[in-house]
């Protein structure tokens, strides 16, 4: 009996969740029936994660040095040394749903305040028909306040209920992209000279962002075959946010910061840039998925037979944490945000499906697949396993097994390994202070002290807002209960 393509794809979707649940069940089962085995496993596992932490610190340190070095350069003066820099235009996509004007003003003010000339920017404010009245009011206000500050200010409205789409940011961007192509064609512009930034609506760019991006693009040997990934900070509302929210946000920053140092498996994430030519070639962002920000890299990688990379940019863009005003809403916001990010596991079946058939793709496609699969697997299991393996086997062991040398020394060994691994938390806490906004409200020393102490929450946060939403996402994919796009509410005091 021949298996349909639908069933084959569903089987691929079931693999990640099956691996996660098999791992968790077997760990609990063997902790009961073979606790001494699991004590050995705990020591090996913690040693492995100690090496991972040291590996992480190495790349984080490199990226930090690059970050400090690159921000000290006057990038606009570097751009002006390029003979053809005036040939480039920036297309800036700002998809929005129901955000209030003050959120958009923060974004637009940063664009205007940058070192790069705004008459080389075309802003695309992309709204949704399902929030039409609110969007029309906000778009009218933004165009009145900022419309004359750019080369052009375009407004697009994504229709509701287009067949084959889901209500998500990618669908909005896809619609806006096609409308902008029509606009660009009337101008007769060269697609390769249009540098396109896709931003979350709360993205506040560094003053040197567009100068840095232009220089990176113009000096790249093949600029249309690359995406450009800046460093994501979450400083917009950092002082309004609860400590656990800041820890999750900053953990994301440091993860991406370490990833920037190893560009080969680097993916696009959240706000990023690329050429308009590549977007046109692949048909713009996919309209039927949640995680369009990373899928666009895969679309290009496959379309260009692997001749596509992501260039690390050691320049920051800042966004909001998941703070929603009230504590209960913030917890809900943060959980759903992390689950949406973990829904990036939807790339796994897509990659296997396309990579298996594409003979022209280079061998590094399997490196990309492993990078995604291992990362998502570790995200969902590692924090829980470190906790369970550290205690459950010893609790379940018999008196005879507890009397063995290994069992008696295991707690001390695990404590030493975890104490050394704490270096990673300490390094993150110190770097966190240096990456905060300079204008610290209230008592400066008290706030900095709180930022340092908040990292004590990391082990708990990694389970509640790391493993659990990741398991949730992979279980949904396993069951075919596909996740919709949850828009994190932006709240500013």
TrEMBL record:
**TM stretches of this protein:** 12-33, 39-62, 376-395, 416-436, 448-471
| Domain Glycosyltransferase 2-like as annotated: residue spans | 200-412
Keyword check for Transmembrane helix = yes
Q: Do you know which Pfam families this protein is assigned to?
A: Glyco_trans_2_3
- Keywords, sorted A to Z: Membrane, Transmembrane, Transmembrane helix
Q: Which domain of life is it from?
A: Bacteria
| InterPro entries assigned | Glyco_trans_2-like, Nucleotide-diphossugar_trans
Transmembrane helix recorded as keyword: yes
What the entry lists under PANTHER family is as follows:
GLYCO_TRANS_2-LIKE DOMAIN-CONTAINING PROTEIN, UNNAMED PRODUCT
Designated name of the protein: Glycosyltransferase 2-like domain-containing protein
